[in-house]
Amino acid sequence: MRNQIIDIWENCNYAPDNGDIQPSLTTYLLDYRPEMPIGKKRPAVLICPGGGYSMTSNREAEPVAMQFAAAGFHTFVLRYRVAPSKH
What we know:
The protein is mainly beta. The protein is 10% helix and 26% strand. The chain has a 4-stranded mixed β-sheet with strand order 1-2-4-3, with helices on one face. Helix 1 links the parallel strand 3 and strand 4. The protein is elongated. It starts with 5 loop residues before the first strand and ends in an 8-residue tail after the last strand.
């Protein structure tokens, strides 16, 4: 496995701050490398960690994203609202 630099950007604040857990999207974007020339498309994957209606599982988020990143994917981890939030 090659070392690749990954830019991590987290973007939160998709909903009014009412005390609920706010949705967030964390992106892991691979930097340019000579073996991946500018303009060459890279695959991407969106990870929505499971865990049920009361939480999202941390073990189904970043560890999964890092495995895809190591395989050359741009990865996105979507954290979404769960209980006690509704809709």
